[in-house]
Structure formats: C-alpha cells, structure tokens
C-alpha cells in the first residue's frame, strides 16, 4: 500500500493518552546473513491506535517507529499452551501472510488479543450498528422495519388507484446553522406509530436539499388507509442534517409529533421542531390537501381539456399557489384513474411530487413503476407455436419416406436438426413454466438484470417494467398519462459472439452462397415453398370458414348472403390454384420417385398369406436405418391430439374399429364396393407393434372422421383406411338413402369444418412415408370439380340454377406433369382400381397397360362417372369424346369441359341443349334439410385442399433436403437467436399495448390512429457501438424490424362479452390458440399463426370496444400493424471510445433509415387531420408555446444529419414526435437499470417543462429529486440489492451533463 512516512511518524509519536494500548511484544523478524536467512524474535515496544499497530526499537521518547501493522482482513491464531514463556499468537492475513507476536505472560497476551480483535473497522462498524439498534429499540422504533417491509409482512401491495386519507407537502424554515455558520443539508423522515406492534415504522422520506435553512421539499407524502392508518395515528417528522452523501451519515436536527387527524382538519399547519433537549431548532410547515377521484368529472378523454369559451369575457384565470402562500380555496386535486392496472401489472411502486410552475402554480405528479405479469406468460405462447412448427417440419421430412444415399444422410441431418431445436424450445418452455410457479411464491414478475445470462429464461425480456407518470396542472387545466416501457436490450446474452449481432449474421447468410451461383436457387426455392405453404394454410382456413358460414345459412334456409360467400370462395380457390409453379412440383415429385427407398414390407402383400409372412420375416432380419430409428422414436412424441379423442361417444363404430386394428394385431378388410370378400389375417402382437413403430410414424387421426355418424352420407371416403392399413383398394359402403337429422349443434358430422382439428390432424396436412403422392394436376382438378359442384348446389337452392358455373382455370394453363404420367403406369403389385363415391379423384396403383393414354382415358372416365353420380352428367364414352389415341392434355381438357358444361346445363346432344341433370333430379319442395345437400361437396373440397397442402409440404421438404448442410445449420442457429430476441421484443410491445388499452381511460385520438394507420412505436436505445454492445445493438435492430410482420387484432374481452353471435369470432380465436375462455382477473393476449405471419389477439375492455369503428361481415375485427422506429445513441465511456475510433457509422446509418420511416409515417399521419397540438392552454389569449409537429420533424432531420459527439438530441426530439403522434415509447440499455433510469427521468422532466410549465430554475432540482427518491432508484435495488446507480467516477465524467446522477446515488454496484 502507499503511505506518507512523515504523517505516520507524527501519528506514532503522539502522547500516550491517544493510544488504545501500549506494551512490550516479541516480534518475529527475518535476519539476513551472508550464508543464510533466519528468523528470530526480538523485543519491541508496541503502541495500538485504531487499526494501526506501531512497533519501536525502544521506549525512548524520540525513538522513531520501525514499522506498522494494519489490523484489517486478518484472523488470530493462538499458539499451543506452554509452561514457559513467551506466550505467542499469529496474525494470519488474507493471502497467506502471517506475523508472529508473543507476550511475557498469558494475561498480557489475552489483553492484547482483546484489543486487536476490537481494532478492525468491521468490528467498530458492527458495534456502531448494534448501539444504534439498541437506541432505536429503546425509543420504540424498529430500525430494520420500513413501510415496504411492513407491507410484505402483511401481504399487501400498494394500489395506485386507492384514494389516500390525505397528501401533504413539507417545508422547513429557520433551521439552525452549525458552529461555523454553515446552513445544514436537511432531509425529512416521516415515521408512523403502529399501536398493535408498539413500534414506529419509517413511512416516507424526502430528498436532500443542499445548504438551506429554509428548504422546500418536492417529495410529498400520501397516507393510506390500507396501511392501517387512521385519524388517531401518530406521525413523527424528524429533520436530519446529512453530513456525507455516500454513506448517508446524518445527525438529527429536531422532530415533532402530530396526529393524522389534526393534519386532516386543516389546509396548512406550522409546527415547531424541537431538539432532544427540548429547544426549538426551527419550524415545519405542512400543506395538506384531499384528493378526489378523476371519474367524477365524467370526461372520457385521458387528457381532459376544459378551455373557457371565447365569449366569456369575465372569466378569471389564476394560478394555484405554492405551499409558501395561502392556498386558493375551492381547488381539488384529482387522483388518476389507473384502469385495470392491478390485473396486468404487479408490485407497483408509487412516488408523488409537487413541483412549482413558472408563475407560482403547482404541478402534481404521480410516478408509478410496476412489473408486467406477461413477462413469463406471453413467451410461452410463442414457444408453443415454434414447437408446433418444428413438429410440422419433422413430419414433412419424415413423410417423404426414406431416401437413398447420398440423400439419406442429409435427411437424417435435417431430422436431427429439428429434433435439437424441438428440444431447446421445449426446455425453454418448461423452464418458463417452472419459473412462473416460482413467481407465485416470490411475487417477482420480472427477470432481474443479474439473470440476463441465464439460458433458462432467455426468451423473457430483462427488467421489463411500466414507467408511468400522471401530471396535473390545474392552472393550465390539463392532466395526462405518460407511459414508458423500460426493458433491457432485446438480445441473446448467453450466446457469446463478437460478430455484430443478428445484422451481421443475416448479411453473412445472404452473402455465403456467392461463391457458387448454383446454390442461390436453393434458398429461393425453400422460401417460395414455405411462403406457398403458409398461404395455402391461410386460404384453406378461410375457405373452411366460408363453408361454415354457408352451413349456418343453409340450416336457417337463408339465401341472402350465400352467393357472396360463394364468390369469395371462388376467388380464394383461384388463388390456391395459382400459388404454385407446376415445374417446381414436378421437380420435387420426380426427385422423390427417383430416390425414395422401397418399403421392405409392401402393404399389398398383407393380402396374400405365405408371401406376406415371408416378406415380414425378411423385414425383421434387416437392421434399422438411422432414418427409421429416428422416426420410430417420434411415434409417440408427435402423436396428434385427436387420437386420444377417438373413443368419444359420438365417434362412429366403423372408425373406432378401424383405429383398433394395430392394437389387436389384426388387419381386416371391410366390405368394399367392388368385392364382398372378407380376408382376415392373424399376426402376432409383437410383429404388429413392431411394424406400427416403424411404418406408422404419424397417427392418422383426421378431424373430419373422428366424430362422424355411422350412417352419414356417401361421402365417407376410403382415404383414412388406406392411410392406416396401407390399402388403396377398399372402402366403406354406406347407404345413401339413410335419413339424417342435421343441425350444427347436434350433428357430429360437421366436424370436418372444425379448423382446429383440420390444423392438428396429420392426415390433413402430411403424406405418410408409405403414401403415393397425388399428381399435381389431379389435385387441381379435384379442387375445380368440388367448387363447381358446391356452387351449383348453392345456386340451385337460391333459385339461380341456370347461372353459369365458374371456370377456375383456362384450358391453355393446364398441363400434365411427368409425375402424373408415371404415377398412372407405375409397376406395382396389382390391385383393383376403385372410385371414391364422393367424387374426389384418387390415384391408385394399376397393373401394366399397353398404352399410357388408355390408362389416362380410364381415369378421365372415372371423373365423369363420379360427376354422373352427383347428377351432373348422364352420358357415355362416345358423348364425352374420349379415345385412347388422344393426348394427355386433350383428355384432361375434354373432361373438364364435360363437367363444366354439365354444371352449366349446356351439354349438346344431337343439336339440342339438355337441361342440367342436377336440377332435374332434385325437387326443391322435397328438400327438407339444405345442409344435407351441401355437406358432400364441402367435404370433397376440404379433402382436395388437404391434398394440395400435402403436395406443397412434400415439395418444401425436398428442397430443404437438397440444401447445403453447413448453410442450413448456420441458418438454424441464426433463426434460434432471432427467435430469442423477437420473443423479448414482442412481449415488451404487447405489454405496452395492453397498458394503453387497459390501464387508463380510452383515448379516442389514439384509437383513431390505431385503427387507421396503426400506432407508432418508438424504441430508444442507449447502447454503445463498442465491444459486446455491438452485438446487442445488432440483435435489437433486427428484433424491432421483425415487429412489422406481426398483425394485431382487437377483440372484445371474453370475460366481458356475452355469448351472443357477436362473440363467435372470439370463440373461434380461442379455439385456435387453445386458451379457452379468458379469466376475469387477467386479460391474456393470444398469439396464433406461424413464425413469418404471427397474429396477436388483444382483448379490449367494453369502454374501448365501444369506441372502435363498426365492423362489417367482410372485416369482422379491427386489425392493425405497428410502425416501429429505433434510434440509438451511446452515452457512456464506451461510446466515447467508439466515437474516437470512428466505429459508429452503422449506428448513424440506422438512425437515418429510421428517420426516413418516421417521416413516411408522419406524412400519412398528417392526412388524418387530427389535432396534434397540446389541448391545454393558459387562457384564451395565450397561445401554446409548443413547436408544431412539422417543426419537430424538421428539427429531427437536422439533428440526425449533424455529426456530433453523443448526439442525444436525436433521442429527445424523436420522443416528443412520438408522443405528439400518440405513439408508444420504449427505452432500453443493456439491463434497463442505470442509463435507462437517467433517460427516463430526463424525459419526464422535459415533459413537465415543455407541457406543464415547470419553472426553469426548478428543472435541475426536479431531475435530481426523481433520480434520488423516485422509482428508478428502487429499480436498481430490485435488480442488485443496492440502491445505487452503477456508475463510477470515470463513467460519470463521460456521461452527458443531463444524464449524470446526483451525489450519493451512484457508486460501485453490479452492472
């Protein structure tokens, strides 16, 4: 250590009365010799003062000290007892060093040991604290009990909407100065007496006022009845003089005790402060007021404006008086209405202030900081979606079947990659769920900054809080809420990297295929296929919703509205047929045909006896490949949820028996249409189960079959049977004439219109490994025929049967794919070819034929035969004009023309037009139930759309297998990191939107902007573009950008909505996300969709829902997208270093790009012609002093283009623009604790000065007060346990002046 020798010598030679102990001790010292070193004990004269032990050569007065031992961080080890002296002990220091000392006698040694033990600073500190506690307990005061601990013991939290008994503002005057005439640094501490426990608890504390004998304090104190206070409660107010800010060392000046009832009876109270000796040391002034609820005004606006009418000449505009003047009579301050804050946020911390305006008025401020209850709940919904998406991709790849090498290894790699992601997402969801259980015990609903590197909680945002300020200036007749969401940077802290974050990673992914131009097509095909799948899923859901609406109208026999629904379905099916490039599908199907491994046990061999058993034995002897080993493990993990519901009471017996086949170990053939022979084989249980594990990977429980009646209509298809048993030859025979009791509420057969079952059923979304893909042209033809049949039936029921049907494709656009031709002539085990009774074309393996065209003619004949069964066509082969010599394209076009003309009633026979056979066969008067007529065509359309999606998924999986494995692994890692950041960003955004919609009065202007443009969302970053924070900045920029893709839909809260028809959409949404009915305690947002197209359903209360624009059948709900902007400027010492190195160009460019986006939004906002100026005015003759929005935009343009060190003006101007345009504000740094606290308090004070006339000379005082006693300092304590901002002296010098905390509020703490 460093020391001043002269000062130590002076201290060591002072008189004996200033030392704690003196005496002779033997010190063991090291002696240096010529040949060796030795240690000997020498007699020394020792003197102890504080924690310094000096030793001298002799006791002479002028002897100088030989050395000093500092008695800190050391322990004492006593030597073993001896019969002869000296009696020694060791001083063992941290680090291993030790010093041996000894005394002449045992008693003298014990005396030295006692003095040395009491000499350290830690010992003296603990003694001081113990003495203080004894003094406080003697006074009847618990030093460790404050109001926060008191509330925790009682299990009580503060309700910001609670009306307090009263609120007081404090001021002192004539405080005594010290002996040198210097005024004190006063602070007031308020204690209340709790009679039941007999103790005083610390209830409130004001800020410290520097060097003032007449201080006026800005903090106010609210007394709440929920804390057990009443008019008889005794209140003690004590004034202290703070001598040292860092350690908060203070001496009492004086105190005064008064009852709360006496305070409530008057508006102003002045009482003396008395010292412990009873002398008056000053006076204390209390200004008292009672608050009234804001709801009494009846205003529906969040910022009520009560400007005087212009013709009221006699109106007098006066200001509220400050507490130094008599209060003006008749003035009531209002308590803000916080809405449903307690439902969405927890553990609110409330702080109140009273500032002075420039003309003597008062500004009342309520500051609230609360934790979001969505912090750990909402990310679980996102993880559930991503888990489902990984399962879908697994099913896609496994549905291709096993491929040959070299593609087999790539297929296994792809499966392993998805399994790893599935494991990571599932683990994260489990950890969040487990932590949510811990939240209920600990009561903390936020992720502290100390756990930001914890991978188990990486999907939850760091330190997410709502920072709210409510301001009222009665002089200006203005009040309002100002919310800021404070949250840590959206980044994956646990992913160690120094590559610039997601921005650089995504750029590398785009640039990586540059070496090989051929690989450029891979990602393009994959993205095209993925986009097409999402579009098909969405269009399929919309078409099914339209069919559900048609069924509802058909049940009620209402023709109005049916034709527009049909037109909408026609347009959507047109889009469906135009989504895919037939060339890509042909390429994918050809790839599967070429590289797919034939199954060891063909399904058809089970129909034979000895041949099938022999193949099975051969199959059992084979070794499982990696593909089969993985898919065997997935047999139970990826089981569809509707498999467990197959034994429900309304399930048909035929379906139940069919699904029991594998368990019974028996494969039985049901009664078919072409053969009535029943063949039954008995296989052993082990063989059957082993076969199931290997080949039946994904259970095939389709939603439309699980709850059907046994005596439904003839549309029960053999497709489920073929999927399960591997047979394509037989189907279930059902009597077409069986009468049906129909109804949407009672008919289980309507389940094929259940979108939840449709989305979760594997057979409706994926091929099985043993399935033969359906040719693309046949899929399109099935959709066309189904839509034409459905539309013709609807037009017949509406009395417009003569209307022409719609042709979805032109003849020129129809082509034949190579896979279709090869599928018709594939050489497999011969089976009979059957036609579905529901009219959907299915591809069945056929025996070898001599001509491809002849087989195509047979297939086309089957299509016309199916149409004839529907009553559309009654003709023969000659009428159609099919022949074996025709080309494939001519055959297909001729068939479609025949069906088209049959529907339109325009089939020409012998020169005469024959009427539509469909209308001839049906009597409108005899049709009792319209739904019976529509259901077959609807089911056919649904099955055809399922086939379209299956082929699209197969194509997508083929392109993904062909992708480069290294690039795919890198993209997988980037996607996981992007999901982590996006989860944090979306959770924070949803928290801000819910706070705006639920936690204050409805703002019509905000709702107008929300429903027309979508709200502006301004993210303010304080990250430095240096070191690790470069990655944080890159991650956050991408996460904010990804919020553009999210669609938000406002829905009436299910807890408040009645079970009327208007809530049907909400019920559907509940079914989609599986959340059911929301609880009344907490309105929970719901998220549905896919990674690239998320939809968040935001519940809104009734008072907000009533202000939304009226919806129409075409737009059943209000939807919007947000416009996010992200401005980042570093302010700490790392930002100084980055700017000196010239590394901030990417940050400056990002700020310019976000300015352009903000400017574009401003031009759209300006077209709404909304009042953007602050409504509050100081009178009819006083114009508002606010700059216009156009001036602010011009100012932002200038400052963004200005090259300036730590250009924080960008942040200040952009925040004002955001509030003018009713946007949402977010502020972030690394952990949303220190720099965020400085920024938030600065923004709040700037709002007070610019909009509420805070006096300019009071600005710095108000800023220091909010930082020293406000909620942001409480935030540091919640995160680190220390009420200090983590700034050191070096960082303080590099911070901009307005971002520096006051003295005593910063120091060494955890960052």
Task: Give me the secondary-structure topology.
Layout: H1 5-12, E1 21-32, E2 37-49, E3 52-56, E4 65-70, E5 74-78, E6 87-93, E7 98-103, H2 106-117, H3 121-139, E8 141-146, H4 147-154, E9 166-173, E10 186-194, E11 199-205, E12 216-223, E13 234-244, E14 249-259, H5 260-264, E15 268-274, E16 280-289, E17 291-293, E18 333-335, H6 341-344, E19 345-356, E20 362-372, H7 378-399, H8 407-442, E21 465-473, E22 478-486, H9 501-511, H10 521-556, H11 562-578, H12 582-595, H13 610-621, H14 626-637, H15 653-659, H16 661-664, E23 666-668, E24 680-682, H17 685-695, H18 703-706, H19 719-725, H20 755-760, H21 776-797, H22 818-824, H23 852-869, H24 877-880, H25 888-904, E25 908-909, E26 912-913, H26 917-921, H27 930-961, H28 965-998, H29 1004-1012, E27 1016-1021, H30 1028-1042, E28 1047-1052, H31 1064-1073, E29 1086-1090, E30 1093-1100, H32 1102-1105, E31 1118-1120, E32 1123-1128, H33 1133-1141, H34 1145-1166, H35 1189-1201, H36 1209-1220, E33 1224-1228, H37 1235-1251, H38 1259-1269, H39 1271-1280, H40 1289-1294
Parallel strand pairs: 8-11, 17-18, 22-33, 27-32, 27-33, 28-30
Antiparallel strand pairs: 1-2, 1-7, 2-3, 3-4, 5-6, 6-7, 9-12, 9-16, 10-11, 10-13, 13-14, 15-16, 19-20, 20-21, 21-22, 23-24, 25-26, 28-31, 29-30
